[in-house]
Structure prediction request, 134 residues.
Amino acid sequence: MKAATAASKGLIGKLMLIPSMDANGEFTDSENPRTEVPVTTPRTPPPAPTGTVAPGKLYVSKSGVAKQGEKDGKPWTLYALELSDGRSASTFDESINDLADHALANTLPVRATLEQSKSGKFMNVVELMIDGDA
Prediction:
């Protein structure tokens, strides 16, 4: 019975292309021998180019997500940024945050238009542009 069971398992395994285990506990496949694939270390991308800081220019010194939440079933994200002159401001505009991240990563000077919130407690980023006069 053992021989018949082993023979039927072998036949079904071959027909269904199921690899079997060898004595070491590793799978073997006689029709498609296993070949070693060389492991390569992923290449790290080069750092982003950084500009030089020009005196008298405004730069983004910090940028990122400040808060996230949901109102009336709609998700929202509040982004915060700090400028090199010490001012802090926030925005709900993702494109302003993306531009701030880009300026920060590449040490690019910016022009920022900030506005006091209606409550008077916060500064809002109304506009952010890369300063082309650098």
